[in-house]
Amino acid sequence: MNNAYAKSARLLEDITEIEQYRRILDKDTVKSGEPHWASMGKNTITLFQVLIDQDLTHLVMVLRHYPKYIEAVCEHFRYAYSYSENSANIDAASKLLEMGEPYFTKQFVRNVIRKLPRITGDDREELQQFIDTLNETRHRWHPIVTMHYRNQCKRKINEMALHPLQRIVLEKKLAMIPEMITYDYEASDRDSNLDIPYMN
């Protein structure tokens, strides 16, 4: 699909989708100086809790149109959502990390990463296809996401019962993705054990 057409189609879809949220968000005002959820109305709080619990595509769309809520959403992510059954869309999670960079905390980043789909199963061909996809999308996905999956693939290769030549092929493909130092979200911090949501 032509890139210009794809962007136009995505914009039209975006505008159509955002309308369902305007009646809540246009009535709300962010109170400066208040801690995250206390800075907005109850309907807005409920809306963002639902969006955070889903696959993040609509959350990112809403934040594109209403960037004043980015800081509050990033703050709330520190206390959520290891219990969510809904995995994140990888592109949406990458965009959320990009939007949230000025407000990074280790717990925020950890919990976004926890929402990413996991690499499961022991199918060599599926793993090889994912590594190829990772290499193709590494300039589109946030570096934290790319390195997370690079590490997951490396761990999976080490765990799988592979013929030595199969292992070499996978390792060579993975080596095509340069290793980068990104935000250190694994280190312990004062929020390291906070994985439950709260409301002020």
Task: Give the secondary structure arrangement, pairings included.
Blueprint: H1 3-25, H2 42-53, H3 57-65, H4 70-77, H5 90-100, H6 106-114, H7 124-137, H8 143-159, H9 164-175
Low-confidence stretches: 1-12, 195-200
**Percent of sequence in beta strands:** under 5%
Q: What share of the residues lie within helices?
A: 55-70%
Oligomer: single chain
Structural class: mainly alpha
Describe the protein.
- The chain has 200 residues and is mostly helical.
- The protein has helices at residues 3-25, 42-53, 57-65, 70-77, 90-100, 106-114, 124-137, 143-159, 164-175.
- It has 2 domains: 3-114, no CATH class; 124-175.
- It is elongated and about 60 Å long.
- The model is unreliable at 1-12 and 195-200 (pLDDT under 50).
- The N and C termini lie far apart (46 Å).
Question: Brief overview, please?
Answer:
The protein has 200 residues and is mainly alpha-helical.
Key traits:
0% strand; mainly alpha; 2 domains; disordered N terminus; elongated; 9 helices; disordered C terminus; 200 residues
